[in-house]
């Protein structure tokens, strides 16, 4: 699976309250949640994103509460991949469970807002098309790649249990 998109860059310690503020948790509808994704930092973020775009962030992305709304709201905007120096474990797993690619890359400092990246999830390679730099990461185990390709854990399970 390859993902190609423009970078939206975020700082360290982006918590789930910043990703989707608690006052919007009354809905499970991804189309409603996306309207408020990153609202405290970038009002109307969902209007800037094109399908396939990529978030790059620093350390501890997705910290805070364990709400599943956070990765769901991000995916609904069109973001297909999040690359960060580190993730909250629960956010990481919630993202995988809905089929959102999350990649840990120790140093993201050379990747800039607006760069265009091409991510090869299966090979563990990232090419920054803008700067011509490349990065490597440990690819997911095969079963996690299957979960992501199928669109998340529930869809993967429904196929496996047939």
Describe what this molecule looks like in 3D.
This protein has one domain: Aconitase, domain 4, CATH 3.20.19.10. 28% of the residues lie in helices and 20% in strands. The protein has seven helices and seven strands, in the order E-H-H-H-E-H-E-H-E-E-E-E-H-H. Strand 6 and strand 7 form a beta hairpin. The chain starts with a strand and ends with a helix.
Chart the SSEs and their pairings:
Layout: E1 2-9, H1 16-19, H2 30-33, H3 45-48, E2 54-57, H4 69-77, E3 81-84, H5 89-97, E4 101-104, E5 116-120, E6 125-128, E7 133-136, H6 142-149, H7 153-160
Parallel strand pairs: 1-2, 2-3, 3-4
Antiparallel strand pairs: 1-5, 5-6, 6-7
Give the CATH H-level superfamily.
Aconitase, domain 4
- Taking all Cα atoms into account, the compactness measure Rg is 15 Å
Number of helices: 7
> How many separate domains make up the residues?
1
Number of strands: 7
Overall form: globular
| CATH class category name | Alpha Beta
Distance from N terminus to C terminus (CA atoms, Å) equals 24 Å
Would you tell me which CATH topology applies?
Aconitase, domain 4
Please identify the structural class as seen in this structure: alpha/beta
Strand content: 15-25%
Q: Give the H and E element order.
A: EHHHEHEHEEEEHH
The portion of residues assigned to helices is 25-40%
CATH architecture field: Alpha-Beta Barrel
Characterize the main sheet.
7 strands, mixed
